[in-house]
Design brief:
This protein is mostly helical and about 180 residues long. It is about 45% helix and about 10% strand. Helix 1 links the parallel strand 1 and strand 2. It is elongated. The chain starts with a strand and ends with a helix.
Length: about 180
């Protein structure tokens, strides 16, 4: 039986192997949840963007008149440090399947309507740049993948041990995986 066990972390894998070290048996294939996601996702003729190019393209995406109203410097050295805010915010929205426009209806974001409109423009510009260069980032991955069904079907069973929180996108991946494997 070809079994895959998926753990929340590499540390959990190490702990599992240590508890089975004295057994005279072959262990099943062991992966972390991050490794599983990398293996079950096909990005179809696209490639993942590297970290440096990511910042360069984001810098290109902010090149419009109203961006300075958001309070993030467009000076490259300062922007390099501050760009993480934009990536984390937009990445979280993408993985939780939340549209920026929907945030305006919450009181917490009511005072930031102009900032949200600017961030929406940044996201659109950035995704257009990614699409132009056939690149994948956390922001456009949820709309640019297919499942690697051959990989999934290569296991008779996949057992996933979860701890913590899954984003809506990660949960969707596991739901899709479960249609092909138990």
């Amino acid at each position: 039986m070809n079994k895959l066990i998926v753990f929340p972390t590499s540390r959990a894998i190490r702990e599992y192997t240590l508890t089975h070290i004295n057994q005279n048996t072959l262990l099943p294939k062991l992966l972390s949840i991050d490794e599983l996601f990398k293996n079950i996702i096909n990005i179809n003729k696209k490639r993942y963007i590297d970290d440096n190019l990511r910042i360069i393209y984001l810098k290109e995406a902010i090149d419009f008149d109203t961006f300075d109203k958001i309070g993030i410097s467009s000076n490259m050295q300062e922007f390099w440090k501050q760009s993480d805010f934009i990536f984390r915010f937009l990445g979280e929205l993408a993985h939780e399947d939340i549209d920026i426009d929907s945030l305006n209806k919450y009181d917490t974001y009511a005072h930031y309507e102009e900032h949200l409109a600017i961030l929406k423009q940044v996201k659109e510009n950035y995704i257009n740049i990614l699409d132009k260069h056939n690149l994948i980032d956390k922001l456009n991955l949820p709309s640019n993948y297919t499942l690697n069904i051959d990989y999934i079907k290569s296991f008779d069973t996949i057992h996933i041990i979860l701890e913590g929180y899954l984003s809506k996108f990660e949960y969707k991946l596991i739901q899709e995986l479960s249609q092909y494997n138990t």
